[in-house]
Amino acid sequence: MPELPEVETVRRGLEPAMEGARFAKVEVHRGDLRWPLPADFAKRLEGSTVIGLGRRAKYLLADLSSGDVLIMHLGMSGSFHVFGQERQSTPGAYYHERSKHVAHDHVVFHMSSGAIVTFNDPRRFGSMKLVKRAKLDDEPLLRGLGPEPLGNAFDAAMLALACKGKKTSLKAALLDQRIVAGLGNIYVCEALYLARLSPKRRASTIASKSGAPNERAARLVDSIKRVLNDAIKAGGSSLRDHKLTDGGLGMFQHNFRVYDREGEKCRTPGCPGTVKRIVQNGRSTFYCPSCQK
Ligand SMILES: [Zn+2]
């Protein structure tokens, strides 16, 4: 499952092809994605212009001149490919290999910019949905989401208040999309490692009884923002270098500090620890028991 930094690099890669451009023609080869595309999907898009391409958690949101918002989600295996006048690219840096088989190009956007944008998804867990902009606040996909981790609303005070009295683990709290939106397994492990906090620690211990943030909350928020920003930067630079056009393993994998490093020596300077893997809520957690307390 692509995580937030990957989705953000996809957004930045699609922006030049789509923003300010009109949908000249839309082809739907398979409408049975995670949920069926509406029968009038292509018709509603054609002729409208993309005013802006934004992101909320792991959803891409194309704001259209028609008053609709096109919501797109990559699912497990979805990817976009851009065929331009000059070159082809696959925006975004992916941890897992993406398919390039044309049989899986389910939706094709022919943009007035001359770019052809294809949505490829072998497993079809990805999704697209058109909603009225005026109804966006009521949209079930987005309604329950907490603040964006890179936004100003996400700070130590907010996180501490959300974790106040919570008996669940810190890791479970950070994966809870109502507390903070868009964080997934990899970057939660990375952030906890950077903050030197144990993933098993009770969530409530980053706050006082009244919900005021302590030093741990501040460290954790800083770490979350840092790991996400670092990953977006790495994805962005790989995008510029065109290293990702073959859809191979992205750069992110090599930048992980703790994720997927079971049995390796801890990278924290001076720490004698070894990275351990445990399972929490059915998901692998990688952490250093020596320096993460
Ligand atoms: Zn360590």
Bound molecules: zinc ion
Helix-strand pattern, N to C?
HEHEEEEEEEEHHHHHHEE
Identify low-pLDDT runs.
239-251
What class do helices, strands and sheet pairing give?
A: alpha+beta
**Order of strands, widest sheet:** 1-7-8-5-6
Name the assembly state: single chain
Q: Which percent band covers the strand fraction?
A: 15-25%
Major sheet details: 5 strands, antiparallel
| Individual helix count | 8
Residue-averaged pLDDT: 88
Envelope shape? elongated
Instruction: Report the strand count.
Output: 11
Rg from Cα: 20 Å
Outline the structure in words.
By secondary structure, the protein is α+β, with helices and mostly antiparallel strands. The protein contains eight helices and eleven strands. The protein has helices spanning 4-18, 41-45, 140-143, 156-163, 170-175, 185-194, 215-240, 252-255; strands at 23-28, 50-56, 59-64, 68-73, 79-83, 88-89, 105-111, 116-120, 127-132, 276-280, 283-287. The protein has a five-stranded antiparallel beta sheet. Strands 2-3-4-9 form a four-stranded antiparallel beta sheet. Helix 1 (4-18) packs across helix 7 (215-240). The chain is elongated and about 55 Å long. It starts with a helix and ends in a 6-residue tail after the last strand. The site of zinc ion (ZN) has 7 residues, from loops.
